[in-house]
Amino acid sequence: MNIGEAAKASGVSAKMIRYYEATGLIPAAGRTQSGYRLYSGTEVQMLRFIRRARDLGFPVERIQALLALWRDRSRHSSDVKRLAQEQIDGLQRKIAELQAMADTLQHLADACCGDHRPDCPILVDLGMGEATGQALVAPSGRHRPPALPTLGSRGD
């Protein structure tokens, strides 16, 4: 099948198939006399494997290792499990980081009056952030940050 058919059958775009081929993730496809790429069912299955691994967040380097293990009939399942566990650990770290970001933003949003006044702890935090090393909004949400300068009020 040609690259368009392989893309449709695998769920991987033609552009990504070319990229995977160029980077060596998949072997170079056979070519017709007119230069069109040809893919077999085995190569489409490999593309499906890659797509599923990408859907699970595996980076290309880890997918290369997984593909090597997939092809190796004398593999140890412990090697596969180790790669999966490392991916799980990385995903758990990302989840914790995203939760911390959401918690911080929720805390700032709760501290913002959201009224007609210009004072806003969200903008203060974004403007000063962690450069000060200080929490700009108290956990109670009652802290009112200093007013921010407005455009043209810096004395320029």
From TrEMBL:
Q: What range does the record give for the signal peptide?
A: none
Give GO MF terms, alphabetically.
copper ion binding; DNA binding; DNA-binding transcription factor activity
Disordered as annotated region, ranges? 137-156
Gene Ontology cellular-component terms for this entry are:
cytoplasm
The residues covered by the HTH merR-type domain are: 1-69
Predominant location of this chain? cytoplasm
Q: Does the keyword Ribonucleoprotein apply?
A: no
Q: Name one process (GO BP) from the record.
A: positive regulation of DNA-templated transcription
* UniProt-annotated location(s): Cytoplasm
**Coiled-coil ranges per UniProt:** 81-108
PROSITE patterns under this entry?
A: HTH_MERR_1, HTH_MERR_2
Listed A to Z, the keywords are: Coiled coil, Cytoplasm, DNA-binding, Transcription, Transcription regulation
InterPro entries xrefs? CueR (IPR011789), DNA-bd_dom_put_sf (IPR009061), MerR-type_HTH_dom (IPR000551), MerR_fam (IPR047057), Tscrpt_reg_MerR_DNA-bd (IPR015358)
| CDD domains the record matches | HTH_CueR (cd01108)
Protein name per UniProt: Cu(I)-responsive transcriptional regulator
- Which species expresses this protein natively? Tabrizicola piscis
Gene symbol of the encoding locus: cueR
